[in-house]
């Protein structure tokens, strides 16, 4: 069976919306990423090392979940209830499930809960726990990050970047328990404590998945957020916004803009002929069509390239539906869709008499060509 390579530029080039540039953002740094493809859509000073406040608690939770289970009991360390600022009103010696402490740390951003998590899962050695946080940061490739505290309160030498915060959030969101917690606006934990989120976009921004806010005097108003739309997940991180309202407005604008960069498009059409294979014996060529359609999110304004690898000729018989090739669609170097190419009909091998007639007619045609 011979092979034929066909390369063609697809006609589909999606037209971007009128707003091509990212929205203006008032903050120290920001980053917008398509987590599905890894594309960086917009950024400013994404590697600047700045305080990140309570976003730190994402790492605290990740390290704790490597040491214990959510159903494990944790005894509140005496130092936890004197940490200060945002609090879940914990009391020294109180026993809570790790899962409840994680909810308090991620939903209400409770500093006493973060400290209790660190001390309770490290046998009281918070310094050892913080060392594990930094070791985890190294394993995740967070080169702009260093932790001093498990709660994120202001202290010299405690910093990260918009780039690293986004990677940290994506790592945390791989944990089913974390994904469930960070999308909650409220929760009730042991002792009848009712938690309330600081994430103002939950319940107001369509498709928001979480993940974590933060605020201190040094860090300003910070947040990393993820939203799901059009078959993909967009992450936006803002660090050092001057006010809570400004952070919320800018973050929502970045998420909307990020989603607007894409359209769900049919890049492969079912039943469309992408190639033809010769069948021999003077018969018509066999159309090869895509077995199924493909609809995927595509970044606007980017040309697509089709690469078709299919049989140039086939040995008979061939059955309808037989796979005889592949069509692949690329956006740059990234493969966005692939489908098999199949025969549209059955083609039988002609019998001995029919083959003899075909060869006879061809021989006569050749002879006549020599004569004329």
How would you explain this protein's 3D organization?
The protein is an alpha+beta fold. The chain folds into two domains: 3-13 and 266-369, Peptidoglycan synthesis regulatory factor (PBP3), Domain 2, CATH 2.60.410.10; 29-260, DD-peptidase/beta-lactamase superfamily (Beta-lactamase, 3-Layer(aba) Sandwich). Helices cover 27% and strands 31% of the residues. It contains eight helices and 17 strands. The strands form five sheets. It has a six-stranded antiparallel β-sheet with strand order 1-15-16-17-13-12, with no helix packed on it. The chain has a five-stranded antiparallel β-sheet with strand order 3-2-10-9-8, with helices on both faces. It is elongated and about 105 Å long.
Gyration radius over CA: 30 Å
Termini gap: 34 Å
How helical, in percent, are the residues? 25-40%
Strand order of the largest sheet: 1-15-16-17-13-12
So, CATH architecture of the largest domain?
A: 3-Layer(aba) Sandwich
Structural class estimated from helices and strands = alpha+beta
Mean pLDDT: 88
Which range does the strand content fall in? 25-35%
Quantity of strands, as a count: 17
Shape: elongated
Number of helices: 8
**Could you give the order of the helices and strands?**
EEEHEEHHHHHEEEEEHEEEEEEEH
Whole-number tally of structural domains:
2
């Amino acid at each position: 069976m011979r092979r034929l390579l066909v390369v063609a530029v697809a006609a589909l080039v999606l037209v971007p919306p009128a707003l091509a540039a990212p929205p203006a953002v008032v903050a120290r740094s920001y980053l917008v990423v398509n987590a599905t493809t890894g594309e960086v859509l917009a950024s400013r000073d994404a590697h600047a090392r700045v305080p990140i406040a309570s976003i730190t608690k994402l790492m605290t939770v990740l390290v704790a979940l490597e040491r214990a289970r959510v159903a494990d009991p944790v005894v509140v360390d005496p130092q936890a209830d004197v940490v200060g600022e945002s609090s879940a009103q914990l009391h020294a010696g109180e026993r809570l499930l790790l899962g409840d402490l994680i909810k308090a740390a991620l939903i209400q951003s409770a500093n006493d809960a973060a400290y209790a998590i660190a001390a309770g899962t490290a046998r009281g050695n918070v310094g050892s726990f913080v060392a594990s946080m930094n070791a985890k940061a190294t394993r995740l490739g967070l080169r702009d990050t260093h932790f001093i505290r498990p709660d994120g309160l202001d202290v010299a030498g405690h910093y990260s970047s918009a780039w690293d915060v986004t990677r940290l959030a994506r790592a945390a969101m791989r944990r089913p328990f974390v994904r469930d917690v960070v999308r909650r606006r409220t929760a009730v934990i042991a002792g009848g404590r009712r938690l309330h989120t600081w994430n103002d976009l939950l319940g107001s921004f369509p498709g928001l998945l979480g993940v974590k806010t933060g605020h201190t005097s040094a860090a300003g108003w910070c947040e990393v957020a993820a939203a799901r739309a059009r078959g993909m997940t967009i992450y936006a991180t803002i660090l050092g916004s001057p006010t809570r309202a400004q952070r919320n407005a800018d973050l929502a604008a970045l998420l909307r803009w990020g989603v607007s960069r894409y359209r769900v498009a049919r890049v492969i059409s079912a039943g469309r002929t992408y190639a033809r294979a010769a069948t021999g014996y003077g018969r018509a060529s066999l159309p090869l069509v895509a077995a199924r359609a493909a609809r995927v999110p595509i970044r606007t304004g980017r040309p697509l390239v089709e690469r078709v690898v299919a049989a140039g000729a086939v040995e008979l018989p061939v059955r309808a539906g037989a796979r005889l090739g592949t069509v692949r669609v690329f956006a740059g170097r990234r493969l966005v869709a692939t489908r098999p190419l199949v025969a549209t009909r059955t083609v039988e091998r002609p019998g001995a008499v029919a083959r003899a007639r075909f060869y006879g007619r061809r021989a006569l045609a050749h002879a006549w060509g020599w004569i004329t």
